[in-house]
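Final report, Chapter 2: Outcomes

The project's central promise was a pipeline that accepts a single protein chain and returns its three-dimensional structure in a standardized token representation, suitable for archiving and comparison. That pipeline is now operational. To close this chapter, we reproduce one record exactly as it appears in the project archive, with the input sequence first and the structure output second.
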Amino acid sequence: MDILALGALGAYSTYKSYKSKNGGKFYSAPETKKHYDNISVEFETYSKLAEALIEEMDAIATTDSYQGQDADGVKQLMSTTEPETLRMILDLHEAIEQYFADVIDAFARDVDSSPEAFLSFDMLDLIKQDFWDMLNDYNTEAKIAKEKIEEYSNKYSVKYNHTITIPDFSPGKDAFIALCGEEDGDGADDYLSKCQKMLVDFDEAMATHLADLNLMDLVDAINQKLVTSVTERYPDSGLEQYVGNIDKFEKEYNYAKQFFTGDDAVDCQIINILLTYGHDLSSFDDVSWEEMSTDRRKAYTRITEVDIEYMDGHYSNEECIEQEARVKTVLWVVMNDGDTDEDLIFNSDRISFMKDNMTSEVSKRYITTLGTAKLSEHPEFMIEFSGSYALDITVEQAGVNFTFTSDENNYYEEIYVSPSYNRAKNYISYCEDKNPGCFNHQIGLLMHEDPNMDEEAAKTKLATMYVGALNSTDDEFMSNLFMADSTYENVFNVDPEKLSVNVQSIVGNQMVMLASDDYAYGNYKELTNFINAGINAEVEIDGVYYPATDYYLDFLAVSSGIAADTLETEAWSVNLNDENIDSFGRKVEIAQHVELLMLVCASYLNGDSQFESIDLSECAFRQGDDITIIYSKESGKDETKLNMNEAFGASATNVKTAKRLDELKEEKNKAESELYLTTAYEFASIFIPDIPEKYEKAKKVYDGITTLAGLATGLRAIDDEYIKKMEEGEDDYVTFYSYMYSKKGGVGYNVMTFEAIKLIRQWEEQGIGALYSDENGVVCVEDVEKIQNAYEDIVGSDEFEGCKMSDIKKVCNTMIYGTNSGKEIETYDSINDIPIDLLVKFFLALDSKVDDVQDVETILDDILDPASN
């Protein structure tokens, strides 16, 4: 606190120029009193708290329950320095309040007694100027009048023998001068100058009075006591060099306090580090981590902890300049040396020390991510740098990115820290503050997809998706998408090879939402824009833009496949009696057709042509729809129309071979395994709750059913020739619960429809009667009874030769009565648990022992092969 600070509390003006026209003295009685009253209230509150604190400190200083060397030091502090300092501050407050009272009394006595008084030196100057202007006008007019009268007097007095009296204009002039003085006069005696002088005299008198009170001695005494207390508490911190410069001392001490731990030894090191190497540690030249004392390592850890927490709460690098500089310096210190045997960028022991000495879960999360960064996963990163290098930190995305770059060695490696939910949610708010409504389109789409979702819930879902960003490219793409309009322009202008499976999951879900019947309203314009934006995306590499059509065609194909499989997975556990089950089934159908659409696009070839765009005007994502593919070639643009049902058939001439589909399927399987069967569980649950358990169950079914070792084989392979081919490993046959868009020897697109899934679930639970039900669920009792009545014949069939009777009954019970029949019978947990050889034998036995019922394979063909209907 200094004289200017005290002056700001007092009545006299901080304007010091007596004659300044732009900064003269002023005084407002009501504002001054209001200001003083507010400060007095705060002083009173401070006084009450101080007295209570003094009592508490006295209790500590006199207690016998706290003993020891440390206790003596604390007691000494509590009994002397702390209460004495508080008393001195209270005395200072009392002196200031007395000064306030003196100011108000003096103004009322010497200047103006009105409680509403307001005087301004500048305003009085302006008033004087106005009166000077009027005085000049008066003098000019008086002179003109006087000269005219004298002219008339000289001209007509003799003629008319009458003296014309010339008026005396001086009284008017004197009245003006008495009010405002003359413009070139000394301004000592006029009324307005006297008013100004009263204000100045009052101001100077109060300044003299303030000096006489000697408040600065009190302030100096308090400052000195505090300085002594701080330097004794933190010896050798470096603050002692500023004992004679209280402003610098206070500035440095207060800056360091933001990092204090409460441990004096560590806090002393914090002060020393910041004083020695600068607030941004730009002059860093400390010893190695191992050579540092434990307290000094803790000091660096604490500085990093506070800075990371600060960075996590901000989204502008300009606001984090010092924080980033300090964090980068410390990270270089804890990095592994060139001769390390660890496959880690940062030394595991140093990172562990930092985590163990942090209390902030936010900062621990960052340090953990950095500490697990492997050298083998960052092949361009080098421990020993042969040239210039830099570590940059970017906080301007949802997540925070740590980037290592070297111009000389031309490498770039990033360690990306995914945002926490809170940071992601705050990032959305930050973006909306800068650009109101920037998320409106995506929020509207999410709310349309789920009518029960409000705007806040939609933002929550966006934040949860942001949490799934695994790198800065994911982060950038998500922002591009979430803040896009219906054109989706520039959404895909990122490197598709860097996008994670989490983004593919989002993109697949986006396409399904855009293809929904009540959103697209039959024109699919926005979905077309979305797909075409990907097809026509360009990626910048070293300042040059390259088309990314082939990459994004594959990307979109895999993304759509993930979405379709995700919904198929959900179909295995969805409540089949839900009132919205038909809508869900339609959603599954749309998702599967979107996947088929993208597989057609990704597999399309036409000589030297370049895929350019698609037209969905004749598509409704149902069986038999057509799409138009537009491509460019040297001769110009051209187009071709494809029927999605036939796109993979023998009649399709413009598609790649089965190898292409196998490659895409392999990519999809790899992506799904990463998405659903790894640590990405939490992200996958955005689209399906409890996805891990559901996916594992569905995957178990698929592994059995969609391969030749599955149930499909049992239905299709009921002749020795087929079984022989199966045993020889031939894999070009369609499998159960799937259909082929062409059964004429072309490449097949296998997918499990919702009707197929529903059927297998009903069959599994209710028994074979589910196959013999019409669309209204009415069972053909006659056929079912024939099968059930043949139970003993089926069990005794020669087809089961060599099988244990318990296994035979178990498979027959499962296939005929289901797993939830209510009967006291033993069954498998699911159809897929039945050994394939036993299942094949069951169907052979069923076929040989039951006549005059509709063939099971025919029933399944009708339901599982929509293309044949």
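Archive annotation: Strands lie at 26-28, 118-120, 390-394, 400-406, 411-417, 538-541, 544-547, 610-615, 626-633, 636-643.
This record, like all others produced under the grant, will remain available to the consortium after the project formally closes.
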